Amino acid sequence: MPRSLTGLDLASVLTSLVVLPAVAGAALLLRRPLDDLKGA
Known about the structure:
By secondary structure, the chain is mostly helical. The protein is 92% helix and 0% strand. The protein contains one helix and no strands. The protein is rod-shaped, with a radius of gyration of 17 Å.
């Protein structure tokens, strides 16, 4: 049981390390064209 929990924790940590920067990068890439459209 502890092994599956540590494996799950490791998977969630690795997923968050990959997903969070990807989401932040996508937000930054999407924000630039929106700012250009606004003229900011």
